[in-house]
Specification:
The complex is a heterodimer of chains A (about 325) and B (about 100). Chain A is an alpha/beta fold and about 325 residues long. Chain A has helices at about 10-20, 35-40, 70-80, 95-105, 120-165, 175-190, 205-230, 255-270, 305-320, and strands spanning about 1-5, 25-30, 55-60, 90-95, 110-115, 195-200, 240-245, 245-250, 290-295, 325. Chain A is rod-shaped, with a radius of gyration of 38 Å. With about 100 residues, chain B is mostly helical. Chain B has one domain (about 20-100). Chain B has helices at about 20-40, 45-60, 65-80, 80-100, and strands spanning about 10, 100. Chain B starts with 8 loop residues before the first strand and ends with a strand. Classes of the chains: A alpha/beta (about 325), B mainly alpha (about 100).
Chain lengths: ~325, ~100
């Protein structure tokens, strides 16, 4: 609770200092000129604020001083980013009222008149300090709130990402797929561009699960998902877990040829993984059946039509012996 | 008004300030000396500042008379009125001689 008195009159400094100390303000410092006050406050220095201005909660500033007067001193202190929150109370004779206006314009918050009246001085000092503490408290609360808001935003971002991701495989989840295809479908309609999807299903996954257990099944899903994630590299595409052992890739602005090539690559990569599957009619290793479909959608068409086409192609691939790609 | 002339002037001072009073009174005797030198030199600036500071501090210590004399000194110095300053020095000296301080 520091108070800085700036007054060229020794008698005035001593009087103010004594009255304030007697009223319980322990840290009261007097300076005889604006320049000395600037040095004590660390004005325009990059020093640690706590060592300088940070210790002061109030400045009592004489108006008429040789050299830099109280008004100019007030203006300079208020213009310093580190010091601008320290309230300045001007100390002035009543017949200096004209200068009072200048003082307020320079940023003073209040004034006490000379000769000093103890009651008036202590009342003003107390109310200005009260205001300063309230404002400091509010500022620190605002800071805390801002920090909390930042944490909340961060948490929301994590939540948003988590809610879009399939917890087991790390691929996009079904909801994310629904939103993505809806958006890309509309864009394809608008731009009259093709959009393709690849539907995949792990061959004989139920048998795999029964034989290797649920943990084994989960591991298999993770491995296949990781092959899909590594193979689907274009940032514009979205690979997601469609449900159970089914995966789907959406390829905006992609014609059937490109989609079929990627589908075949996916099939090959999964097979090349060489993950044993003793209960598959298709192979000795884990394989996928793949259905591919592509459309240049027109207004009035639903994206479910594209999904249905790919689904039918996937069914055909299974029917024809699995571990193969069928183009719709 | 000459020193020691007239009745005693009882000044009631805030006991909180008791420790400062001797220094304050001594300061005014110093002012008288400086004022006399300033008048001799025609240094109105010093006279004005001394008057201004007396005006500002006197009443705060309980000495309204010093505030009044200080204000008059400040004005006389601004006006360059040496005779008035000399008269006010005498008045201040008389005032200091008459006061009796009680707490």
């Amino acid at each position: 609770m520091g108070i800085l008195i700036v007054d060229d009159s020794k008698d005035s400094r001593e009087l103010l200092g004594r009255l304030l100390k007697n009223a319980g303000y322990r840290d009261v410092i007097g300076e005889a000129s604006a320049d000395d006050a600037f040095a004590t406050l660390g004005l325009s220095t990059d020093g640690d604020l706590e060592e300088h201005g940070g210790r002061f909660d109030l400045i009592l500033m004489d108006v008429i001083m040789p050299g830099i007067d109280g008004i100019e001193a007030c203006r300079r202190i208020r213009g310093d980013t580190h010091l601008q929150d320290i309230p300045i109370v001007m100390v002035t004779a009543l017949d200096e009222e004209g200068t009072l206006q200048l003082a307020f314009a320079a940023g003073a918050v209040d004034y006490v008149t000379k000769p000093i009246n103890k009651t008036e001085l202590l009342a003003r000092v107390s109310s200005v300090l009260q205001l300063k503490y309230e404002r400091d408290r509010r500022k620190s609360r605002e800071k805390e709130l801002l920090e909390a808001l930042g944490q909340l935003r961060h948490a929301n971002e994590i939540l948003r990402r988590l809610s879009a991701i399939d917890g087991l495989t790390g691929l996009a989840n079904r909801r994310n797929f629904d939103e993505f295809i809806e958006r890309e479908w509309r864009r394809a309609v608008r731009d009259k561009k093709p959009i393709s999807i690849i539907m995949m299903d792990i061959d004989h996954f139920k048998a795999y699960n029964d034989h290797y257990g649920h943990q084994g099944g989960d591991d298999c899903l993770k491995k296949v998902a990781s092959v899909i994630a590594e193979t689907v590299k274009r940032p514009a595409d979205l690979a997601s877990r469609y449900g159970g052992e089914e995966f789907v890739v959406v390829l905006p602005e992609t014609e059937i040829k490109g989609a079929a090539e990627l589908a075949e690559r996916l099939r090959m990569e999964v097979e090349a993984m060489g993950n044993p599957h003793e209960h598959s009619s298709a192979s000795k290793v884990v394989t996928i059946s793949v259905g591919v479909a592509s459309l240049i959608p027109e207004r009035g068409m639903a994206h479910s039509e594209l999904v249905e086409l790919a689904d039918k192609a996937l069914y055909a691939a299974k029917r024809d012996g699995r571990n193969r790609v069928q183009v719709a | 008004m000459a020193e020691g002339n007239g009745e005693k002037l009882v000044i009631k001072v805030d006991p909180d300030l008791a420790g400062l009073i001797p220094g304050f009174i001594q300061g005014r005797h110093d002012d008288i000396r400086e004022l006399k030198i300033a008048v001799e030199k025609g240094d109105m600036d010093t006279a004005r500042i001394l008057g201004h500071n007396m005006k500002g501090s006197g009443g705060g210590y309980g000495f309204n008379g010093i505030t009044e004399i200080g204000g008059a000194l400040e004005k006389a110095a601004k006006d360059g009125n040496k005779e008035e300053i000399v008269r006010l020095i005498g008045e201040l000296s008389g005032y200091l001689g008459r006061i009796e301080i009680v707490y």
